[in-house]
Design goal:
9 strands; two-stranded antiparallel ribbon; 269 residues; Rossmann fold; alpha/beta
Length: 269
């Protein structure tokens, strides 16, 4: 635990919040964050519908909603959506985007570990690229179980962004040979150097610092009381659409990384 310039306690969770607040201004510029094509949007719709079923006006909570990308997809499908994020900078962008698109999505400032939402108040809880950043994922999973209605569904979209597969290592070596000492072009998702260093520092201290594997998340969900847990790695259509706006190496890596959806249910009453 460190201290802020004012001398008050400044935790790792505070640092994570502030890191993403600083990245809010350019968050939507990155393929894989915002959606840039109808092709990708349709692929997301198919994925969400496959696991959540018809919306029928059910209530959905988008945790760590950022600029509202997943919230808009859920709204497209007919869910009554609440987006929760603890970065005011992200929420400002999310609210502006919703207004510009005439969307009826509720965005609130809140903490994924302590949502302050009522017990059994949502039919669906969705997170994208949140779990790998968590300091205490088990506490979060129990909190999300609390706010789900009996029989409700948790859907986690995430990945292992730490451990490289053999194919990723091969691609890195090939790039080195092709460039022959030249500096590689910046990846579309690259943060400014100071934020990239902070990102590496944060990653070294979170629970999944060695990589968030689907099987580890599924096991932890079971320990926290979820049932009917399913791991789905069929994300190829989404990755193919995203790759159209990436470098050849980034696009290939997107396909071979350990990216997945974990779906789980709260037991019925």
């Amino acid at each position: 635990m460190g201290q802020s310039p004012s001398g008050t306690n400044y935790t790792l969770r505070d640092e994570i919040r502030d890191h993403w607040s600083k990245r809010a201004a350019t968050f939507d510029d990155v393929p894989g964050h915002e959606i840039f094509s109808d092709r990708e949007r349709r692929a997301w719709h198919r994925l969400l519908s496959r696991h959540l079923g018809p919306a029928n006006g059910r209530r959905a909570l988008d945790l760590a909603s950022g600029t509202g990308v997943i919230s808009h997809l859920l709204d497209d499908l007919g869910f009554e959506v609440t987006g929760l994020d603890w970065s005011e900078a992200m929420l400002t962008k999310a609210k502006a985007k919703a207004r510009s698109r005439d969307r009826r999505i509720t965005f609130r400032l809140g903490d994924a570990e302590q949502t302050r939402e009522d017990d059994a108040s949502f039919d669906v809880v969705v997170t994208r690229h949140l779990v790998w950043t968590l300091v205490d994922p088990a506490a979060c999973f129990r909190e999300w179980l609390r706010v789900l209605k009996p029989g409700g569904t948790l859907l986690i979209v995430d990945g292992d962004f730490v451990r490289q597969s053999p194919i990723e290592r091969l691609l890195a070596r090939l790039e080195t040979l092709v460039l022959k000492g030249r500096k590689p072009p910046a990846a579309a998702s690259s943060a400014p150097p100071d934020l990239a260093e902070q990102h590496r520092s944060i990653l070294s201290r979170v629970h999944f610092k060695d990589g968030a594997r689907a099987e580890d998340i599924a096991s932890m969900l079971a320990e926290c009381g979820y049932e009917r847990i399913v791991v789905d790695t069929r994300l190829g259509a989404i990755h193919l659409a995203q790759a159209c706006r990436m470098s050849w190496r980034s696009g290939l890596i997107r396909h071979v990384q350990h990216r997945y959806v974990v779906v789980a249910a709260k037991p019925p009453a």
